[in-house]
Amino acid sequence: MERFLSTWLVSAVALSVAAWLLGTHMNIGDSGDSTTDSVVAVLVVALVFTFVNSLIGPIIKVLSLPFIVLTLGLALLVINALLLLLTERITDAFDIGFTIEGFWWAVVASVVISVSQGVVNAFVGSHD
């Protein structure tokens, strides 16, 4: 449970960094939201993102292993972008306000999120 909570919080920070860096290409919440509403939106999106990555991510990565090896790991960028777009679809069903402006922005966002998670994990000492 502790690992899930730390992963969730690290994901929240990483998603916030990605939304900040990508500007209008990736949004979490609405522009008129209060600070509390924005934080809640980020936490909810991060929760869905953590569940998607924890439950669906490993299955897809194992099934795609030959393709991942064949592309020297570049297929992971596509897989991570698709998992991020799945997170967008799920949160859209609950009207949370998480949008990404297309597949290629999802690829860029997944790279930013991965790097951000690595940096945050290095500071908090989490070993995923």
TrEMBL record:
Keywords of the record: Membrane, Transmembrane, Transmembrane helix
One Pfam family named in its UniProt record: Phage_holin_4_2
Ranges annotated as spanning the membrane: 38-56, 63-83, 103-124
Keyword Membrane: yes
Signal peptide: none
InterPro entries xrefs: Phage_holin_4_2
UniProt entry tagged with the keyword Transmembrane helix: yes
PANTHER family per UniProt: SLR0284 PROTEIN (PTHR37309:SF1)
Name recorded for this polypeptide: Phage holin family protein
Species this protein is from: Aeromicrobium fastidiosum
